[in-house]
Structure formats: C-alpha cells, structure tokens
Amino acid sequence: MSETKPSIPAPVRPLELVQAVSRGELVVAVATPDWRGALRGRALAAAFAAAAFLACVYVAFFTADQYASEAQIVVRGVNAGSFGAQLQMLGFTRSSDETHIVAAYLESSDIVADLEKRIDLKAIYARPEADLLSRFPAPFMESGSEALLRHLKRWTSVTTDEASGITLLRAYAFRAEDAFTVARAMIESAEQLVNAINQRAHQDKMAYAKAYLEKAQLDVQRAEREMTEFRNATGTVDLGRESTAALDMIGKMNLELAEMETSLRQQLAVTPNNPALAS
C-alpha cells in the first residue's frame, strides 16, 4: 500500500491596485424593458382604431343625406362696354375687382346678416332629419352669429376662376329645396352688393361731371368778364364784328397785291424795256 502525500497549494499572488486610465472605450448599457411605454403605445393604437371604427359606423348609419345646389356668378363691371360685356359673359376676360369683392363678401359676416333677413338660416341647418354632429348648433357649440358664420363656411363653397372671372358657388343642406334656397339667397345678396357698387360708381361719375361742368361755367364767366373789361378799355363795341371787318380788309388788300404782282410779271415778260417799269 503506497502512501499518498498531501498536495501543496499554489502560492497566492497578492492583489495590486492599478489606477484606471480612460481611453474612450465604448460602453454598452443594457436597459431593462419599459412595459409602461409599450402599454401606452398599445393604448394609443387601440384608441385610434376605436375612433376610426366609430367614425365609420357614424358615417355609415347615422349621417343624414346632403343635397347640393350649384350656381355660377359672373360680375360685369360698370366700365365694360357691350362687346366687353359679351366677352366676359362667355368667359374670355379675366376677373375684375368686383368679382373678388363678391367672393370675399360671400365668405364674410355680412352675408350671414343679409341671409338672416331673407331666409331662416338657423332653421334650415336644424332640420329634424339632420344628424347630431351636422346640425346647427351642434352639441357643445354656440349659436351666435360667429358660430353660424363658421357653420355656413363648412356648408358652402366659393371658388373663383382667375382666368375667366367666373365665381362658382355651392350650397349644401339636408333638403334639396333648402340648398336651392340658400344658394338663391346668396346670389340675391351678391347682386344687391354689385348694384350698390355700380350705383356708387355712377354717383361718383355724376359728381365728377357736375364739378367739371361747374368749373367750365366759371371759366366761361371769367372769359366774358375779361372780354367786357377789354371792350371798356379799348372802346370796342363788338370784338367779333370788328375783327371780322379787319380780316376782310386784310383779305382784300392781299388779293389786290396778288393781282398787281401778276400784272407786273406779265408786263415785264411782254415789254421788259418799258420806261414806265424802270422806276
């Protein structure tokens, strides 16, 4: 039986502390999963999908039918002649300033005030067949003039073709007759505005013509006064008659001078040695 010798442990090296030197090594940190962010993203996606689904259901089953009425507006300027007006009606002239004024008026607060005088605008957009979100006023919505203007802008469309000057008006409503009523009332209001502009332009022209006529009358009166003063200073009774007589005399003298020159040339041609012509 052999005797087993006990193993001698290896010598342990002492630990040496060495100061670390930064060399710009890339350190990658492993982050723990953020389960709250994942839940938040899933909640947003679910909310978006639910909103889209509800919108599709509302449009498919609850939205009321809508009707449209379309009209084209052509504004003829006050300075356009008959031929220019015909070209403008056919769409061969560019839009005028009145066209832009009418387009801006149809989208302003003034159109609401004028429409309320002509039709019951609030009743048209609050029909029983209107759906909850499209009626006026909608839930949690004001019912004043500004809110009615915003609602009217959503239910009407005004576009202008710069090349032809034609303004296209579309009015929408829950009934066909209501859409036609709104479009017709807007056209009548626009026509009233154009007539007022033309009337103002006509009044301005008449005022200018009247002022020009009054100035011409004053000029005539001043000229007559100056002529009277000249007559009194020179003792002339009638300038026109006296000037005519003087012009007649000058004309006769010019005629006699021409006859004498003609006779002299003839005598020189016939008898150049005539003693009477020597002087």
Topology:
Blueprint: H1 35-61, E1 67-74, H2 82-90, H3 97-105, H4 109-118, H5 121-124, H6 145-154, E2 156-160, E3 166-173, H7 176-234, H8 239-270
Antiparallel strand pairs: 1-3, 2-3
Helix pairs in contact: 4-7
Which features does this protein show?
mainly alpha, 8 helices, three-stranded antiparallel β-sheet, 279 residues
Strand order of the largest sheet: 1-3-2
Task: Describe the main β-sheet briefly.
Answer: 3 strands, antiparallel
Distance between the termini: 193 Å
Alpha-carbon Rg, integer: 50 Å
Number of helices: 8
Q: Flag low-confidence runs.
A: none
Look at the structure and give the mean pLDDT.
77
Count of beta strands: 3
* Percent in strands: 5-15%
Percent helix, as a range, is: 55-70%
> What class, by secondary structure content?
mainly alpha
Please characterize this protein's 3D structure.
- By secondary structure, the protein is mainly alpha-helical.
- The protein has eight helices and three strands; from the N terminus they run H-E-H-H-H-H-H-E-E-H-H.
- It has helices at residues 35-61, 82-90, 97-105, 109-118, 121-124, 145-154, 176-234, 239-270, and strands at 67-74, 156-160, 166-173.
- A three-stranded antiparallel sheet has the order 1-3-2.
- The N and C termini lie far apart (193 Å).
